[in-house]
Write a structure and sequence with these properties.
The complex is a heterodimer of chains A (about 110) and B (about 110). With about 110 residues, chain A is mainly β. Chain A has strands at about 5, 10-15, 20, 25, 30-40, 45-50, 55-60, 60-65, 75, 85-95, 100-105, 110-114. Chain A is built from no helices and twelve strands. In chain A, the strands form three sheets. In chain A, strands 2, 5, 6, 10, 11 and 12 form a six-stranded mixed sheet that branches. A four-stranded antiparallel sheet of chain A has the order 3-9-8-7, with no helix packed on it. Chain A has a two-stranded antiparallel sheet with strand order 1-4. Chain A is globular and about 45 Å long. Chain B is mainly beta and about 110 residues long. In chain B, the strands form two sheets. In chain B, strands 2, 4, 5, 6, 9, 10 and 11 form a seven-stranded mixed sheet that branches. A four-stranded antiparallel sheet of chain B has the order 1-3-8-7, with no helix packed on it. The chains are: A mainly beta (about 110), B mainly beta (about 110). The interface of A and B includes residues 31, 43, 45 and 46 of A.
Chain lengths: ~110, ~110
């Protein structure tokens, strides 16, 4: 079946460090891929998305490239800030029993220290 | 434009009690859904609706009921609360159930069942 696997957290980095959060997926066909972010005490919000192979989604300095050959959608940022501290969710959109549903990873908590 | 609103923000119930979690959106979205978020498990879909008068079950529907009498409102009812239903509940909406549509989330309801 369809699934999303994210690296376990928490991930703790110093400000201005390079960030990578790994996400790999299993899906039939050609799913759409998403990264959502959840700041403390808030609901989730879309960070970026990619709808076909080799697409690169980007927003707020974050990037992720849809790699079909490695079934991956890793999230990267060149220089993180304290305000990036949040939980990051990778998700895919694919058919499940003829219904289209978002399939979510477990989330990766990111802690940025000044 | 309030987006997606949820009430209450916090709730404590005793086992066997019933209650309704409220969700409303003012974006005229057709698709609405309810998720529960548990530590280490990401988001799991409870119920969803593709329009007024139409609802369907998600991954974990047992113990919950929904209805969609208007486009704006999508309440979630717990019929007889159990400790296993202790969780954070999120309502989300989007223009459609299409694969690339952004999901807009409410701020969540933290429910504790004693």
């Amino acid at each position: 079946g369809n699934s999303v696997t994210q690296m376990e957290g928490p991930v703790t980095l110093s400000e201005e460090a390079f960030l990578t959060i790994n996400c790999t997926y299993t899906a039939t066909g050609y799913p759409s891929l998403f990264w959502y972010v959840q700041y403390p005490g808030e609901g989730l919000q879309l960070l970026l998305k990619a709808t076909k192979a080799d697409d690169k989604g980007s927003n707020k300095g974050f990037e992720a490239t849809y790699r079909k050959e490695t079934t991956s959608f890793h999230l990267e940022k060149g220089s993180v800030q304290v305000s990036d501290s949040a939980v990051y969710f990778c998700a895919l959109f694919a058919p499940v029993d003829s219904n289209y549903q978002l399939i979510w990873g477990a989330g990766t908590k990111l802690i940025i220290k000044p | 434009n309030a987006g997606v609103t949820q009430t209450p923000k916090f709730q404590v119930l005793k086992t066997g009690q019933s209650m309704t979690l409220q969700c409303a959106q003012d974006m005229n979205h057709e698709y609405m859904s309810w998720y529960r978020q548990d530590p280490g498990m990401g988001l799991r879909l409870i119920h969803y609706s593709v329009g007024a008068g139409i609802t369907d079950q998600g991954e974990v529907p047992n113990g919950y009921n929904v209805s969609r009498s208007t486009t704006e409102d999508f309440p979630l009812r717990l019929l007889s609360a159990a400790p296993s239903q202790t969780s954070v509940y999120f309502c989300a909406s989007s223009w459609s159930a299409g694969g690339t549509d952004t999901q807009y989330f409410g701020p969540g309801t933290r429910l504790t069942v004693l």
